[in-house]
Task: structure prediction
Amino acid sequence: MLGVLSEQEIDRLLRSEAVGRIGCSLDGRTYVVPVTYAYDGQAIYGHTGEGMKVRMMRQNPAVCFEVDHMDSMVNWRSVIVRGRYEELRGTAAAHAMGVLMDRLLPLVPSETAGVPRDPQPSEVHRADVAGRHVVVYRILVEEKTGRFERR
Result:
């Protein structure tokens, strides 16, 4: 049976997963990339190094975000979010990193793989492992839809 997820099922799926895909476009070019994220009911939070997706989203902040969960080929759920990319700085970035760490740290297998649990605003924009400036962002949710298949 194919169906439409309820608002509660959509929120539950967004809160339960840790990896989704951001889709952005610019000048007729579309780019989709997996990211780790956290969802607080209003926005999707993430952080990344400077690169193609950040350059594209700065110029065209209208983005799409997708997350799914597959138990099997005939038992799955998928959510699409349309929203606006927004870079965060200072205390807003520190808050976003706190939301991210609350969601992601329980999934990290070792202490050395994580970032500070309570980052200070001055710590948030340090360089990533490749030496790129870290960008903290949120996607402000404008529309959510979800589908499922169950057998």
